[in-house]
Amino acid sequence: MDLIIRSAAPKDLPSLLEIINHAILNTTAIYDYEPRTLEQQKAWLEQMFIDGMPVIVAESDGEVIGYGSYNIFRPKIGYKFSVEHSIYLDEKSRGMGVGGKLLGSLIQRARESGLHTMIAGIDAANRGSIEFHKKYGFVEKGYLKEVGFKFDQWLDLVFMQLQLEDDD
Q: Which residues cross the membrane (predicted)?
């Protein structure tokens, strides 16, 4: 597979929308209930650009098959060096290394931006994502029981963290 990782552009919005809406409707990777509209996704992308936050896509044969982004962990000035990331892939692109390429690029961008730490909030039942993050140096730092509710069940959340600065 010929894979290109690049910054997202407005032309990618329909693909981003399709990928996120599939995750919303079919998984606990995101705790939203309602699919997003094109207008909502456009507003999100525009705000990410305004805030200087990366949104990157994985493209194969001219088709966007996944995307990733990060944003400040919490909306207080003291968190400005900590970011939480998200990666979403279309169904047919899972298990092919696409997520790793996106995460690697996000980690590199975060380091180049002088950020201190990256955080992942992962549904505790998603062992695949937890193991995936461990491969990239993320460490489990917290477990919150029954903080989410989706598909008529309570969901636990695992927080994982990667320190971006070297401990020289």
A: none
* Residue matched to tokens 């098959």: 65
pTM for the full predicted model:
0.94
At position 115, the amino acid (one-letter code) is L
Give the closest residue to 141 by CA, choosing from 126, 127, 122, 155: 122
Count of CB atoms within 10 A of residue 79's CB?
Answer: 15
The answer as to whether 92 is a domain residue is yes
The CATH number linked to 19 is 3.40.630.30
Relative to beta strand 63-72, strand 55-60 is: antiparallel
How far apart are the C-alpha atoms of 57 and 12, rounded to whole Å?
8
Element (H, E) at 27: none
Please give the single-letter amino acid code of residue 81: F
- For 145, the token pair is 């029981």
Domain span including residue 118: 3-163
Q: Is residue 141 part of a domain?
A: yes
Q: How far is CA 17 from the centre of its chain?
A: 14
Condensed to tens digits (0 to 9), the pLDDT of residues 92-150 reads: 888 899 999 999 999 999 999 999 999 999 999 999 999 999 999 999 999 999 999 99
d(CA 117, CA 87): 17
Q: Specify the residue for token string 């990410």.
A: 48
Residue 67, token pair as written in the block:
């995307």
